[in-house]
C-alpha cells in the first residue's frame, strides 16, 4: 500500500478506471513474469514488486466506490464484499494448489495471470463511481498526520497484518508440499 498516495492522486486527476487498468496490467504481468523467473531476485521483482504495485493500483481506487452507492446498509454491503474477497482468496489458493499438482508452478502462475487479467479487466470496465455526483474531497497525502502517534500505530498494524495475510495467501500453495 506504499503506492496509495500516488494512486489516490492519479485517480483524482484521471478518474477511477485508468489507474485500475494500469494495476490490472501490472498484476497480471507480475504473475506471468514470475512464471519465467529463474533466480530469487527475479521472483522478488515480478511476483513481489510488480504484483504488489498491481494490487495497490487496483484496490485503492475501488475502496470508496461501494460506499458511494449505499446510504442505508452501507456496513452490510462492505461486509459482504470483504467476505467475498476472503472467499475468493481461499478458492484461488485451492485452485492454484490443484494446478501446481496437475501441471506445473510456471503454468499455474501464467494461468493465474491470465485469469486475473480477464476478470479484473471486466470488473474495471463495469465499475462505476459517483464522483461526479457527490464530488468527494480527496487529499492524496496529508503530511500532518505523520506527526500523530496513533497514525504510526495504525500504519504499523496495517503493514504487519497485510504482510502476514499476503504472505500466507500468496505462498500457501507453493509451500504446501
Largest sheet: none
**What best-fitting shape do the alpha-carbon axes yield?**
globular
**Radius of gyration from CA coordinates:** 17 Å
Q: What portion of residues belong to β-strands?
A: under 5%
Report how far apart the termini are: 30 Å
Task: State the helical fraction.
Answer: over 70%
Compute the number of strand runs.
0
Structural class: mainly alpha
Enumerate the spans where pLDDT stays under 50 for 5 or more consecutive residues.
Answer: none
Give the H and E element order. HHHHHHH
Figure out the total of helices: 7
Q: Mean of residue pLDDT?
A: 86
Give an account of the 3D structure:
With 177 residues, this protein is an all-alpha fold. It is 80% helix and 0% strand. It has seven helices and no strands. The two termini are 30 Å apart. The model has no long low-confidence stretch (mean pLDDT 86).
Summarize the structure.
With 177 residues, this protein is mainly α. The chain has helices at 4-14, 17-34, 40-69, 74-102, 105-126, 131-134, 149-175.
How do the helices and strands line up, and which of them pair or pack?
Elements: H1 4-14, H2 17-34, H3 40-69, H4 74-102, H5 105-126, H6 131-134, H7 149-175
